[in-house]
Structures are given as structure tokens and as C-alpha cells.
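Posting for a labmate who doesn't have an account.
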Amino acid sequence: MGCVVAVGRFDGVHLGHQRLLSKAKELAQRRGWSVLAYTFPPEFPALLSLPAKVALLRRLVDEVEVVEWERVRELSPQAFLREEVVGRLGGRALVMGPDHRFGRGREAGPEQARELGKKLGLEVWVVEPFQLDGEVVSASLVRELIVQGAVERAARLLGRPPVLVGRVIPGAGLARKLGFPTINLELDPILVHPADGVYAAWAFWPGGQAPGLFYQGKRPTFPSLPPSAEVHLFSPPPLALEEIEVHLLAWLRPDQAFPSTTALAQQIERDVAQARALLAEFAPPRPLLWL
């Protein structure tokens, strides 16, 4: 059985990527073929870790092939199509976006792919960019929105909330003294980080989930402490955790200094109330790493 190879970095697996993969699936179904997503490990600043990207792609295609860029970067366009797509993967059709470049030095695009494909018996399909609200959906635009803290708009383009993954690390214990214990996180360094501030969030871990607040910032009320990323869960997990997946649902406020710990605690109480009200309007997101 042949396969349709959809090639791209697929960073974020946003609505544009989903449309391209849907078109690949339509083509494959007409031919009785399978669909394979051909992609590469993420590079900073990325929207998804590699495990999360693979998990999302597997919901949309039959197979996922992750290839180290160094292994194919020096292949000519002819060699890439002949040796990788047709030879190694058994590709009968190739699906790409109009701006996709491939081959040594990124020298080839869709037109060259069509010409080379004719000689190899490889169909080449080009899927036009997907537009939403009058603008092209792209990974670069989503990254810009997250950096600005515009996570709700980013979620519209992604088709899901932006996601952070962090390793649990020891904290200073200040949040617990304030009455709002948090789990401190060392965020995956390959991921784009949101604007400093407080967010309504939903967290997942192996075997559990809970809504809460996510904070990232410089802790200006405590200038002697380093910046931090932490999550306050409304339903704390029963066991110690090693890693957490945090979905950012809404931006609440910027990072700011308070005149006292009492004033900070009062603001956090208001943050919790606002987040609870907002989260009541959201359907819980679907986890990427843990079902």
C-alpha cells in the first residue's frame, strides 16, 4: 500500500497544519493509501515539545516520522524526493504548503517538487494557507501572540489552548505562607514563554488534572528572589509530581509589585475568583501527554 507524505515542521500543529493534513487524508482515502507526517524535532522558540507534537500529529495521521534535520539537510531536492520520500517511505504523493522549501540550502519549492515528482511517479499537492479572521494562520503569528500574553487569540489559531510543560522543582515556600500553595516549575527551555503575568489555566499530570492559576514573572514584591514559573491548583494533586502540562486559557493581569504580602494575598484571592468564573465558561482542554 502506498502512502501520502505530508512534510513540514508542524510547530504547534495549528489550524493551518490541520487543514493541510486533512487534505492529505482526503487524497489518501481516495487512493486507498495511508498518511504519514514527515517532520523534524522542534527548535527554540517552539510551540510544542517533540512528544506533544508527535501526540497531536498521531491524532490526525496514520504514521509520524521524526527526522533529524542534520541527516537530510545536505540532500539535493532530487535525492530527498527519490531517497527519502519515494525510496525509504514508499511515498506515492507529497503534500506541502506553498511556502515550503526543501533540499540542500532550501533551494526547491512546490514547482520544483512537481517537476521532479513527474519523473519519480510522485504526485505533488500544494495546500494553500488557511486564513482565520482575515489573516494567515502561522506558527510565527501564534508565537507572537503568546509572547504578548494574548493566549485566547492564540488558542483560536491553534484550535486548542497554548501549552507549557514544566519539571517540578523546589520553591521558596512563600506562596504557601500566603495561603495559596504553588508548584514551582522549570519550563521546557525549547518552548516559547508567555508574557509575564497571571493566567487562568488547566493542568494535567499522569492520572490527574485540575484548574488553577499560572504565574510567570520576576516576583517584584520579593526583589531578592529570582524569577519563577509556578501553578496554583484549585484541587491539589494527592501525590508528589515530577512534570506538569499547563494549558493557558486566559490572561488575567500583568506581573506587578505590591506594597505588602497582605496586599499580594488579597490580589491572589481576587485572581482565584476571576479564574474560577472564567474557567466555568471553558470546556476542559484535552491533554497532550497524559490521557
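Reply:
Got it, the C-alpha cells are right above this. The mean pLDDT is 96.
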